[in-house]
Amino acid sequence: MSNNSLNTFLEQLYQALRSDKLVLPTLPDMALRVRDVVSDENSSLSDVARIINKDPALAARLIQLANSPLLKSRVAIESVDMAVMRMGASMVKNIVTAMVMEQLFQATNDLTDRKLRACWQHASEVSSIAVGISLQYTHYQADQAMLAGLVHDIGMLPILTMAEDFPELLKDEAKLDELIKRAHPFVGQAILKHWNFPEALSIVPREHENLMYDSSDKPDYVDLIIVANLQSEKNHGRMPRDLNTIPAFRKLGLTEGFEVIDMEFMTAVGA
Fold first, then answer.
1. First vs last Cα of the chain: how many Å apart?
2. What share of the chain is helix, strand, coil (3-state, %, to 5)?
3. What phi and psi, each to the nearest 5 degrees, are found at residue 261?
4. Neighbours of 5 (CB within 10 A)
5. What does pTM read for this prediction?
6. Around 254, how many Cα atoms within 13 Å sit in the side-chain half-sphere?
7. Residue 176: its H or E element
């Protein structure tokens, strides 16, 4: 694929994004239903549980998570009602969103399908690492850390969907990868804003590849995902640079040889 074709694709992508014409993915129905119930002042935790109980597989996974080491429940959780009471509405909303997120990572073309599967696998690993790190700091919430990890590369979805209409691009995987690298941070932020994610999470897709990102004095979720990504690269034998030069790494007070203990969080989520 020529550079002119690549620039044309990027210009069309940015123009569609600026004019709100880019087709952004929507959250799966179950996530939306739970969010609606949680945001309804007249709803109760029993109403949240009632929605989840309509999906037996999801209900079973939520109970499994409620009994995981993450929540450290002293009493065995045996029902969705107990799980929702144990977690609270906000955490349940985030957990359900995470559990159904994989539904979005599907495509019809072999190349884009392979890339989306790889993206989901990477997102799941980063999410698990982020949760493990978050448990070591009081200002992070594990469920938010989990979501930040799962959506940090979410901008790939509409790019790959749009790429399916450009056969020339699909024949040049190197150009496609370059395109994704250049465009997915801004598209990802647009998606999370479209989904009404909080600002603390919606900036994660835009900034997580900026290793010189420097937040306020207290590490934020961008810092967390930057470090989780570095741990993921380390797990696969890749290290981009001296970690001690990266602000996020220093802010979290981690040493060069840091390791994260997997708390089985993502295993319970089903990723």
1. 35
2. 65, 0, 35
3. -85, 125
4. 14
5. 0.87
6. 26
7. helix 173-194
CATH classification at residue 104: 1.10.3210.10
Residue 264 phi/psi, 5° resolution?
65, 20
Given this model, what pLDDT does residue 120 score? 93
Contact 221, 204 (CB under 8 A): yes
Backbone CA torsion sign across 106, 107, 108, 110: negative
CA gap 229, 247 in Å, rounded: 14
Long-range CB pairs of 45-54 (<8 Å, 24+ gap) are: 45/81, 45/84, 45/85, 45/88, 45/89, 46/81, 46/84, 48/84, 48/89, 48/92, 49/79, 49/80, 49/81, 49/83, 49/84, 52/80, 52/84, 52/92, 52/96, 53/80
Q: Residues 156, 119: contact at Cβ < 8 Å?
A: yes
- Look at the chain and report how many structural domains it folds into: 1
In total, the chain counts a number of residues equal to: 271
Q: Record the tokens describing residue 239, joined without a space.
A: 């290290």
Residue closest to 137 by CA, chosen among 264, 265, 260: 260
What is the rounded CA–CA span in Å between residue 92 and residue 49? 9
Range of the domain at 26: 3-269
**Residue 13 contacts residue 22 (beta carbons within 8 Å):** yes
- At 70-126, the pLDDT tens digits run 777 788 999 999 999 999 999 999 999 999 998 898 877 888 889 999 999 999 999
